[in-house]
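Batch job 17 of 40 flagged for manual review because the log was empty.
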Amino acid sequence: MAKTLLSMSGADLTPNRVSESVLILIDCQNEYVTGALPLVGVDAAMEDAAAMLSRFRKLGSPVIHIQHEGKPGGAFDLDDPHGAIDARVAPKDGEDVIRKGLPNSFAGTTLEAKLRELDAKQLTIVGFQTHMYVSATTRAALDLGYRNTLVVSAIATRDLPSATGESDVPAEIIHQTTLAALADRFAIVAKSPDDISD
């Protein structure tokens, strides 16, 4: 069987514990549920994101919501209900909400400063979309020195047209391929919240 670079290097592949990490919820917005960009399996993924959020809240571990800010009248317009964070994972008082305009949640935002303030070393990441915002943020987080865990069942994406225009690439293939690439070097991958210890 193929091996990841992490496993070949002898790295500890245990997912980050809730008590030792910061939960990053990326773009858990209505645009992906009832808006112009519906994702495959988004409701199940949102429920598992909510399950992770509940566990972090129960233990008092830090939570940061990332909210994509689109242009007025377009996707992720924050003045439109579709730009709002889904009610299942809506922020509570005291939880940070960081808005972004690019795929990488660190680019042009206060995320890195907030994580330094928290003296964070480990991130647990959920949200949308696998191939774009989750991937870009996870890769950047490794460059900045963070140990990352991705919760597969709390992440989703959509079908995409193939680069050669021959046919669509199914969301599940994009999801699994992206996660395989991230698991090679950038993150520990947990299948579901059940694989994350407190």
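Reviewer: the log was empty due to a logging misconfiguration, but the result itself is present. The CA atoms of residues 68 and 81 lie 13 Å apart. Unflagging and moving on to job 18.
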